[in-house]
């Protein structure tokens, strides 16, 4: 797999259908196609979300990107999956079906952490539930195949990304096969797939068979057992790999290769090349990367990881160590007599490409067919701007690492300001308030490794844990400049920051905290310490609570200086792997001492492929070596009662939780915390339930005109 610079997204020769121009909205019906002068679609995108033509909605972004390449793109949004008929609504696509569950994993979208069905769906008109099936990618792909058996099916989005190899599925409590096997798709594109989708579409349009396209970065496919691209490829058994590569020292780019010129040689030119002592290292590094580009790592087979917790944890460890686009190798995993082959992750977009993607001609509104229906997810982001992608935090419970990766991709300042002006001028209902400038993390804008060579060779799972890497540039000044310019735009009254702030980075820039507290908080700021105790935090790969305390002191200081009464809203996770009852008790006591009474709390939800999910499933810690008897056990909360108890500790102030907490405190030998004083966690008394009002009889007239009695409250 080549590491050469890829072709820029806007450098492809447009497909002939570009002559049809830009559609007001990508068509969702044959009538719309006919109005555009189309006789067919080149690509039909199937999504579990309502179609909102905005770059925050994945199918709109991919659809507009392909349209800009000259292709005719149709959208099937939330089709009826109970038969194939709805998948024939736009006719047969000329090139392929592109299938995604939507912006969220369909199982996370439909079920709570307690496996209970959710009553609403933020990505559906009027928040209606049950508009998408369980495991939507599999179902949609099968219906596409039923509708047109000879049309290729390409799957992608977060649901496909998180299921690209054998994975633990929380909802069935089993290890499931790669989604490629169950969906029978021709190709899987994982992560942010702009590069892969553009190249794939042009190659298919040029007549290549999808079965022959096996070299796209960020793609996965099923092949016969033992398949290789050619004879030069080498296979390494993952059981031989259990150690990440070392971080290379940071070379001094200004060190001269020869002694400085003598005083009597004023005309001698200054030598600016890298010092000779680094050239052998660089040569070896390039040779090593060249070898890695033609190496595939064989993960333990599905049949092995499905029944062996140690091998599952090891496979998870190796999978995450092979996630840096600069040095990742291809992965292969056997499923019976076939292999699931994964090419290395996609190369990040450049700033110019990010600008190109986010400034395509989006209508920036829901499709007109929804009429006046309310789409909560659209209302949440309609006045917000994405400024970056990716997150180098590496939190073990988070899916960003597996999907977007750890390398930050930032837009230019000018592009972001242009989008704010577009919102101001074109988005109905704009009152002058930008609701967010952010991304996965609010304050990683333009942050990167100080040395691209080190970044390409790095094998760390996090750039900020256990401490911030010395090679990481944490300069907040570009973000501060952006904030200042954004709020100075005419017609913009206020710019809020709603994305989560990474406070361990923020404390390194008091100027940023002052800017944030003075101008960009609307009374409350989300922050996510997740826990207070070292054990859970170590298994989350999160900083200690002392860092949160430092940030809070700065935030409170600058809020007071600005004459504002503002508060932090800390988020915590209950029942995360590595958390004991005693940890949750200490967290509850900390919350009480801080005067915090959380209303919205979350119980750990194991999402496929996350490191914390591997801990939950196996009871082992994949952050350390797990082979040869080295595996470290992890405390795992699986019982429903204990999970409820951990959540109850976070809501210690809720009377409904007091009976459960009293019983737990007695069992833990901490009955001293039960009482009616300030030093107690829960009171000894229980409030009486609210009385039920007696029903009274009143007379009503039925449609037949007869009188009858109805009991009312």
Tell me the CATH superfamily of the largest domain. Answer: tm_1862 like domain
So what's the CATH class of the largest domain? Alpha Beta
Number of separate helices: 24
- The CA-CA distance between the termini, in Å, is 71 Å
Rough outline: globular
Q: Let me know the average pLDDT.
A: 91
Poorly predicted sequence stretches spanning 5 or more consecutive residues: 244-280, 697-713
Number of strands: 27
CATH arch. level architecture of the largest domain: Alpha-Beta Horseshoe
Classification by helices and strands: alpha/beta
Describe the structure.
With 713 residues, this protein is of the alpha/beta class. It has three domains: 9-214, Response regulator (Rossmann fold), CATH 3.40.50; 383-653, Alpha-Beta Horseshoe (pyruvate-formate lyase- activating enzyme); 662-687, no CATH class. Helices cover 30% and strands 15% of the residues. The chain is built from 24 helices and 27 strands. The chain has a ten-stranded mixed beta sheet, with helices on both faces. Helix 10 (309-321) runs antiparallel to helix 22 (611-618) and helix 18 (510-519) packs across helix 20. The N and C termini lie far apart (71 Å). Residues 244-280 and 697-713 have low confidence and may be disordered.
């Amino acid at each position: 797999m080549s590491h050469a610079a890829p072709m820029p997204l806007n450098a492809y020769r447009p497909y002939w259908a570009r002559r049809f121009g830009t559609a007001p909205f990508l068509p969702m019906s044959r009538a719309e196609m006919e109005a555009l002068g189309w006789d067919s679609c080149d690509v039909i995108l199937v999504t579990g979300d309502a179609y909102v033509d905005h770059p925050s909605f994945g199918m709109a972004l991919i659809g507009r990107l392909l349209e800009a390449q000259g292709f005719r793109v149709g959208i099937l949004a939330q089709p009826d999956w109970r038969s194939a008929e709805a998948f024939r609504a736009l006719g047969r696509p000329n090139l392929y079906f592109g299938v995604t569950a939507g912006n969220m994993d369909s199982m996370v979208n439909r079920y709570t952490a307690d496996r209970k069905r959710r009553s609403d769906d933020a990505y559906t008109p009027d928040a209606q539930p049950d508009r998408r099936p369980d495991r939507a990618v599999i179902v949609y792909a099968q219906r596409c195949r039923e509708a047109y058996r000879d049309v290729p099916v390409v799957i992608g989005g977060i649901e496909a990304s998180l299921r690209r190899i054998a994975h633990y599925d929380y909802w069935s409590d089993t290890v499931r096969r790669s989604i490629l096997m169950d969906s029978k798709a021709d190709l899987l594109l994982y992560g942010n797939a702009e590069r892969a989708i553009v190249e794939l579409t042009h190659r298919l349009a040029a007549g290549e068979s999808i079965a022959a396209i096996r070299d796209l970065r960020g793609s996965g496919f099923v092949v016969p057992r033992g398949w290789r691209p050619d004879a030069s490829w080498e296979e390494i058994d993952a059981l031989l790999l259990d150690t990440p590569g070392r971080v290379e020292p940071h070379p001094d780019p200004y060190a001269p290769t020869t002694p400085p010129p003598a005083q009597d040689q004023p005309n001698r030119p200054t030598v600016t090349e890298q010092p000779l002592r680094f050239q052998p290292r660089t040569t070896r590094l390039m040779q090593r990367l060249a070898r890695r580009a033609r190496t595939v790592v064989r993960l333990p087979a599905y049949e092995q990881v499905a029944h062996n917790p140690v091998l599952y944890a090891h496979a998870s460890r190796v999978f995450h160590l092979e996630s840096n686009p600069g040095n990742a190798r291809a992965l292969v995993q056997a499923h019976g007599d076939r292999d699931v082959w994964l090419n290395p992750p996609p190369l990040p977009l450049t700033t110019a490409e990010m600008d190109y993607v986010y400034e395509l001609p989006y209508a920036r509104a829901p499709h007109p067919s929804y009429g006046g229906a309310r789409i909560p997810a659209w209302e949440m982001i309609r006045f917000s701007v994405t400024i970056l992608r990716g997150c180098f935090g590496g939190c073990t419970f988070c899916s960003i690492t597996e999907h977007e990766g750890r390398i930050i991709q930032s837009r230019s300042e000018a592009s972001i300001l242009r989008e704010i002006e577009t919102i101001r001028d074109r988005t109905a209902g704009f009152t002058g308030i930008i609701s967010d400038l952010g991304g996965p993390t609010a304050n990683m804008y333009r942050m990167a490794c100080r040395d691209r060579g080190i970044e390409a060779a790095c094998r760390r799972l996090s750039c900020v844990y256990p401490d911030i890497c010395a090679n990481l540039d944490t300069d907040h000044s570009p973000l501060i400049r952006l904030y200042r310019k954004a709020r100075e735009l005419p017609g913009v009254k206020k710019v809020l920051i709603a994305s989560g702030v990474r406070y361990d980075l923020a404390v390194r820039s008091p100027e940023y905290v002052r800017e944030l507290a003075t101008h960009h908080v609307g009374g409350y700021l989300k922050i996510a310490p997740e826990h207070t105790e070292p054990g859970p935090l170590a298994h989350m790969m999160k900083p200690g609570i002392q860092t949160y305390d430092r940030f809070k002191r700065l935030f409170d200081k600058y809020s007071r200086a600005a004459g504002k009464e503002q508060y932090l809203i800390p988020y915590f996770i209950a029942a995360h792997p590595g958390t004991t009852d005693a940890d949750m008790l200490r967290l509850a006591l900390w919350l009480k001492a801080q005067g915090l009474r959380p209303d919205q709390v979350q119980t750990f939800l194991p999402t496929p492929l996350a490191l914390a999910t591997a801990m939950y499933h196996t009871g082992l810690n994949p952050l350390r070596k797990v082979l040869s008897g080295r595996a470290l056990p992890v405390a795992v909360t699986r019982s429903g009662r204990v999970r409820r108890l951990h959540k109850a500790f976070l809501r210690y102030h809720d009377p409904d939780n007091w009976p459960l907490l009293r019983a737990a405190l007695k069992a833990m030998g901490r009955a001293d915390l039960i009482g009616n004083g300030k030093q107690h966690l829960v009171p000894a008394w229980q409030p009486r339930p609210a009385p039920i009002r007696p029903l009274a009889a009143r007379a009503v007239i039925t449609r037949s005109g007869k009188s009858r009695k109805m009991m009312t409250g």
